[in-house]
Amino acid sequence: MSDAPGVDVLLPDGQELRGRLYARVQRDNGAWAYQVGLVLWQTAESGDAVPGEYRVWVAPERLRPVPGVSYEAVLTQRRPRSRAAAVAEAVAQWPPTSDEWRIQRERRRLGTRLYPTTVHHVACFVSGGVEVLTGEQAREALARPLARACGLCGAERLL
Does any domain span residue 1? Predict the structure, then answer.
């Protein structure tokens, strides 16, 4: 028998079976799926009915924890936040209340000594600058040649 912890699985017809929980995986859409093993009858090569484990992925609403069983050791794979999720989170918290800014220097253009720069709000998820500026310093930086405001964080509107 497996070391995987037991879990009760609700079948489509309302029956509940005790299975084993092997893994939980967070999908790209943020929903979780759980891999469970259920021991059912299967036909052996000899024609006899023998117990065999079937592994399936089920939604969390189909599972019931067994009281007193720990699930800490179950393989858990969380999906890293997608860029879209990071943008959605940033937009939900916008506009920011902080008056701190960053300058991202880009590669120098050929034939000039000027570096194109982008001014970002400090909370912008694409800000690559290290130095933190005040609002006044950020406005001065935007006035320089080849400077632009980040279109994602709306630096131009916020300054």
Answer: no
Closest CA to 105 of 61, 74, 63, 146: 146
* pLDDT tens, per residue, the chain with 159 residues: 468 999 999 999 999 999 999 999 988 777 899 999 999 999 989 999 999 999 999 999 999 999 999 999 999 988 776 666 666 666 666 656 677 888 887 766 666 666 678 888 887 777 666 678 888 888 888 888 888 888 777 777 766
- In angstroms, the Cα distances linking 112 to 32, 119, 144, 146 are 52, 20, 14, 11
Beta bridge pairs of residue 21: 36
pTM here is: 0.50
Q: At a CB cut-off of 8 Å and minimum separation 6, what does 148 contact?
A: 116, 117, 118, 119, 142
Parent domain of 54: 6-78
The reply to whether 94 and 73 lie within a common domain is no
Sign of the alpha-carbon dihedral angle for 91, 93, 97, 100: negative
